[in-house]
Amino acid sequence: MGGVDVLELYRTTGALLEGHFLLRSGRHSPKFLQSATLLQHPLYAEAVGQALAELFEEPVDFVVGPAMGGVVLSFVTAKALGARALFAEKDGQGGMRIREGLTVHPGERFLAVEDVVTTGGSVQQAIWAAERKGGRCVGVGAIVDRSAGRAEFGAPFRALLRLDFPTYTPESCPLCQRGVPLQEV
Ligand SMILES: [Zn+2]
Fold this sequence. Notes:
By secondary structure, the chain is an alpha/beta fold. It has one domain (6-184): Rossmann fold. The protein contains six helices and nine strands, in the order αββααβαβββαββαβ. It has a six-stranded mixed β-sheet, sandwiched between helices. Helix 3 packs across helix 4 (69-81). The longest helix is centred in the middle third of the chain and has 13 residues, at 69-81.
């Protein structure tokens, strides 16, 4: 893993939040990883990008990530790989598209990256966006895999860290039962 203790980086930068969080999935969790808080530090971001790049051997032409979280991560990983850094943004119709002005040449090989993969939905949208432009996904990289083995893509999926934080439905959430205020993330 390139000597990077990812969880320690989240901790020391204050990016590992503890409390009571409403996740995008609708479930509740006592912990949340706020990657922007970690990635605001360029030196830590570069270390993470270097470690992610080292998970993959295949040469790639570009890296793509879903905006906003995937923009910095795409950049630092691409820098480590000597590749271009692209990103995908919401297309206003529930999907994603490659940002205007960023070109994918037919047959180009790419790595897709995301900070934390829970369902993998947004990185999958970014992959489809690059594939529609003629790119070929050769790998998917994440800082943290929170999917408990559920996230699958049509290419090898590797993460620097696997975490299995507990999550609850609102009805079965012990934090709700104790009246802990819920924060949206
Ligand atoms: Zn709750």
